[in-house]
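Lecture notes, unit on protein representations.

Consider one protein chain, 124 amino acids long.
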Amino acid sequence: MVAYSQTIPLPTLVETVEVLAARSAVSLAKELNFDQVIIEGDTEVIIKAINNGGFLSSSFGHIIRDIKLLSSAFHKVSYSYTHRQGNRVAHRLARMACNFSPFQVWMEDVPPDVASIYLSDLPE
């Protein structure tokens, strides 16, 4: 498990931020030589676009192509949509991004401010 927070200058579209975050997550997983990856996102249109190869002619189509190319490095990769309340850890990390350096990674751990949320999301 890896948790990370990265500052992304705010573009005009929320979808662009979401697709950039997905590409960063896939890129980090590849750098860490992960074999199996699960990427969750709370923007359904982006998850569908990654899974189906849609929106390739949009302003973020080139980023989706990058994600698909990076994904070929994994034995197993899945992209799944989760409602915001099911993605509370990612939401908290995004809110915390402005308090960290431009890129912060936690290996086999999560930041203390996120630990309680993470533990409550684990299956019993």
